[in-house]
Design a protein that fits this description.
This protein has 16 helices and seven strands. It is of the alpha/beta class.
């Protein structure tokens, strides 16, 4: 029999994972890239099937269904114009970045927009992906354009799952950090962004700097003086909650010493809170000005807006 505590713990984990996948959807710009390619006048390109490694059978099936070739087949000119488009065709072929590296085509730098494509590499990537895509199309008796979205979705899901499994430490901490980073981006507040997994720096237009690291997990600074300190403790083991609380309190107390007017925030899992932990939190209001539960931040829009308001986002 599953206890209420265990059920709630699993629910929070599910929400965190779903939030993470949703964030990756936007981070990888899957929708934007698809619309971008839809707008390309692919008929103006030279489609040499043999050179591009596109099978005649697959090509004819696409053409006869009235589907724009650029939506299905990779063209080196399209990739060179915007290397991030590599991810669209790679996911359409349902192959991973790791498997691309195994065939000598490391694509991460292109998909992230950090590297430019040469004529040779753009052609090699197109030929390899077109070979796979042609085989997939040939295996279907009829071509349904909606299936291409499913192919990409399956590949994106597998990639997101790999990223999720590679996360070290507290996953809920990472998800909350990414929620805040995405909020700042959506509001157009960022002038410079340097994010590596669950750590990094956001420089905002108003001169503030958001540091996502440790002690505190999230720190908002103005002129190098801390303005807001946020500690996130997502552990679910009640036996260790006082230790986690003590570590968070130490970090927030340090922020208060640096700037007595700094706003301090603690976020913890409700499912892990014991009566003693709740009493300790209540006695520490001089250090902890605002308290939220992970569950509310993840699933309650009003609570999330309160957190964003404290961060002035």
């Amino acid at each position: 029999m599953v206890s209420e505590r265990e059920r709630e713990s699993w629910a929070v984990d599910q929400i965190a994972k779903s939030e993470f996948f949703h964030q990756k959807l936007h981070e990888w710009r899957l929708l934007e890239t698809a619309y971008d390619l839809e707008a390309i006048e692919g008929e103006r390109l030279e489609w040499n099937l043999e050179r591009l490694n596109i099978s005649s059978k697959a090509w004819n099936r696409i053409i006869h269904r009235g589907i724009k070739p650029v939506r299905v087949f990779s063209h080196p000119d399209v990739l060179k114009e915007n290397p991030t488009r590599v991810s669209y065709y790679r996911m359409l072929a349902m192959v991973s970045q790791k498997s691309m590296s195994k065939v000598g085509l490391t694509v991460g730098g292109y998909e992230e927009g950090r590297k430019k494509l040469s004529d040779r590499v753009a052609l090699e990537i197109s030929r390899h992906l077109n070979r796979v895509i042609s085989i997939l199309i040939e295996q279907d008796e009829t071509v349904d354009p909606k299936e291409f979205d499913l192919w990409r979705g399956m590949a994106a899901g597998a990639q997101a799952q790999g990223s999720w499994q590679n996360i070290k430490g507290d996953r809920t901490e990472m998800v909350i950090k990414e929620l805040i980073g995405r909020r700042a981006s959506e509001k157009g507040l960022i002038v410079e962004k340097m994010i590596l997994r669950n750590s990094g720096t956001l420089r905002l237009k108003d001169g503030r700097v958001v540091v996502m690291g440790s002690e505190p997990d999230i720190g908002v600074y103005k002129n190098e003086v801390i303005q807001v300190a946020v500690e996130i403790k997502g552990g679910i083991d009640p036996a260790g909650i006082l230790e986690r609380f003590g570590a968070a309190l130490k970090s927030l107390r340090r922020a208060k010493r640096e700037n007595p007017s700094a706003i301090t925030v603690l976020i913890m899992r409700a499912v892990a809170l014991t009566p003693r932990a709740e009493r300790e939190i209540g006695k520490s209001k001089a250090i902890i000005e605002r308290f939220f539960t992970v569950e509310d931040v993840m699933s309650n829009e009003k609570v999330r807006e309160q957190l964003f308001s404290i961060l002035k986002m």
